[in-house]
Here is the input.
Amino acid sequence: MQTVTATDLTDGTKVANTSPAINVVSSGVAKLQILLPGETAAPGTPSGKTGTPTPQTAGTAFNVTVNAVGRQLEPQQHQRYGRDHFKRYECCFAANAALVSGTKTLSVTLKTAGSATVTALDVDASCVGSNTSSSIPVNAGAFAKLQLLLPGETAAPGTGAGKTGPPAAQISGASFNVTVNAVDANWNLINSVTTPWGLVPRTAMPVCLPVQALVAGTQTFSVTLITAGSATVTASDSSDGSKTANTSSSVTVNAGSSAKLQLLMARETAASGTASGKTGTPTAQTAGRGLQCHSQCSGTPTGTS
Here is the structure.
């Protein structure tokens, strides 16, 4: 029930008049309404709600409320209206859930730090308008692991792999840069991590790069792979064993240009990437007898003598 009052704004001597009680009938369900933590319903106002959304943490569940409301955003208490289909900005879908007496509480987990919205859709009645929430600040979670990005790869927080793009092929003996990030469980950068953690990238070869501290959660390392074929690089936290190390995608390493010749004696074997380039001990030979050896240029046999 509502009343209407008429008041003279310029002459206070005039008696105001209030109407009899008016029975106001609901306009019926017109759309859905999403209320985030920190927001409260305010029927009859332009937005239908008041308050500021509370910041959330990536990977941590929180509850939102979905209401069936009328044209003036008044609640429809007696509607059990279809089934609500809840859409997250990360293009994932929560399970359908029926409204009970016009309302439903749903659990949402957002995985990507930054700013997000969520949308409620009625999957049973297309005439009911959907509703997109206010913008939600989403903060990164706790520092959980390291991330290593090769040339050609780009960080993709919130995804399963945490990155996208194929690694670019490299040349044996030529240096290239890799990026190491401090991230949470969902690959969001933790830019508050600075100097406490040193990182040791390791290649397939038993050679360690100097330890370097992260700056604002990230650091660039120069890497040189000297063995042609396929290789990976691993970043490990040298000071905190609780942080998960990360091994890169497989990177193709192509041989460099022809630079010198290699001669292999009997019982010697080529060992690419090592200091001498070969392994094994030459077999003792007898003076005056023929000797077999192999000459290679850039790893390709060129003849025997």
Observations:
- The first strand starts at residue 5 and ends at 6.
